[in-house]
């Protein structure tokens, strides 16, 4: 027989439900059930429905019974729950975080915070007396450097499984179809999640191997979180994986790169450097540039993109990475 929840657990459940009841729209018991599960509160839907019925008699909450599932919201003149509400600044931060980070946070965490995202959006809705925070989202934008592409379709259940396994350090079983169309089942240790342009990649280790590889998440056809956990390899660093050029089809080989580029085309390299040790010689109508970079396929694509404006390209292998010239 299941044990009855303690008074403290009941109070915590009540507070979580009250925090998630909105003012400007209705929320149903199934929605609350999903949010609470994602927040780690495993209660049955019927328990939540009974709690809502009780709260209707104790708080200024409206229940829309015109259709099922019923919708719940605070009454128009109600002060709501006497807990700190989101400020305009907090609402702005949450709104921007939802827009730009939703693919870099665990799906369960995003679901558990859905009520707060909704509240933040309502707080920033335009009114005659709008605050500066209301206008800010329309004043900023992240702009891509390459031809914009629509993001490939990722099945929601796949992303949820991948992000959950990564979040909890659990093994992940997946069906993966590579770029050549070959499909296979893999048992992987998820180590990192990276967004490159419009694409998401899972950095992982295959079971039985000690090297890392990147899998395009949109090519994962099925993903299942294992009940088996793992200890995250202490030697692995997602930042180093990126610094080594692995997302640019490189193997971490540092080279001394030199080339000549016409002045009009290469001007931006005096403002956005290739590396901290970059050296530039001004020859009037062109620049001669030298810098230590990671050798990778994307470097070749970048250089080839300048066409006849770049020439005399030379690469010299380096055994060691350059030292940071900045003072300690």
From TrEMBL:
Residues 157-225 form the WYL domain. It comes from the Bacteria. InterPro entries: CBASS_pafABC_assoc_protein (IPR051534), WYL_dom (IPR026881). PROSITE patterns: WYL. This is WYL domain-containing protein. The lineage of its organism: Bacteria, Pseudomonadati, Pseudomonadota, Betaproteobacteria, Burkholderiales.
